[in-house]
Amino acid sequence: MRARAVVHRFPYVFSGPNRGLTRSLVQGLSRAIGFGFAFGALVACSRGEPPAPMGIDAAVAPLPAPAAASSDANAATDASTATTGATAAAGADGGVDPGTLPQTHDKPKASGPAFDARIAALWEGIAKDDPDLALPAFFPVTAYEQVKAIPSPSSDWRRRLVAAYKRDIHALHKRLGDSADRAKLVRAEVPDDRARWVDPNEETNKLGYYRVYGTRMIYEVDGKERGFDVSSLISWRGEWYVVHLTGFK
Q1: Which helix (H) or strand (E) holds 13?
Q2: Burial class (CB within 10 angstroms; exposed 0-12, middle 13-18, buried 19+) of 246
Q3: What is the pLDDT confidence band of residue 95, given thresholds at 50, 70 and 90?
Q4: Of 73, 122, 147, 188, which residue is least crowded by CB atoms under 10 Å?
Q5: What are the structural domain ranges in the chain?
Q6: CA dist 205 → 55, 65, 148, 188, 249 (Å)
Q7: Mean pLDDT score across all residues of the chain
């Protein structure tokens, strides 16, 4: 049985002469929203989900603890990334970073101004080859610190997850090629029927969250639709955030 996807079309054109409107939408709504995995193959298949690679925690599995920063420059970069992430996350709850607030069991919906703003931010980051523009769509570092039962989750967030996210954004921009300036975001398709609640301790997590694989971003170039997959979204306080963009790293 095919899973039902929630298809959300966007009311704005995110390219060409209206690119300024996109940036205004993203910057405005990003202040009003939170900043913004998966089981092994056996569990995923039993629920009709595409399996993650064997041996990989497809949600937010940590790699071995990263080495200490080798220079002051690396430390400054880490601090800057964390600050940018925290700034992007703040705003949904009266200017408070939502990652500092308690998790909820609310199931996210792939619609509404907050969702639109995050998807628009992700698209703008890809279209402009600027990962920092896409940080509002990524799972907040403060929420990750609450979720993960590992040493130094903020370091894992910066050096593994965000690093992979940025590489993926550059790669997707490269895929757009010469059509980057003409490409328009059309809709996001979230397979809502595949979303499931991940209980504590299932994925080295202290707190639960919803997770969904296989969201599809659809864009248009010269009247023809194309698309790419977003590997994994997880929830915080009833909102979807990207945690793995392309593959599981």
Answers
A1: none
A2: middle
A3: confident
A4: 73
A5: 6-244
A6: 17, 16, 4, 28, 17
A7: 78
What's the CA gap between 82 and 158, in Å, rounded? 7
Q: How far apart are CA 195 and CA 226, in angstroms?
A: 24
* Angstrom distance (rounded) from CA 230 to CA 141: 19
Q: Mark residue 178 as left, alpha or beta (left: phi above 0; alpha: psi -120 to 50; beta: remaining).
A: alpha
Distance of CA 174 to the CA centre of its chain: 19
Q: How far are the Cα atoms of 77, 131, 141, 156, 225 from residue 170, in angstroms, in the given order?
A: 18, 7, 21, 20, 21
Helix (H) or strand (E) holding 108: none
Helix (H) or strand (E) holding 45: helix 41-46
How much is the pTM?
0.69
- Looking up tokens 């041996």 gives 55
Q: What is the pLDDT of residues 25-65, one digit of tens each?
A: 445 444 444 434 333 333 344 444 545 544 444 444 443 34
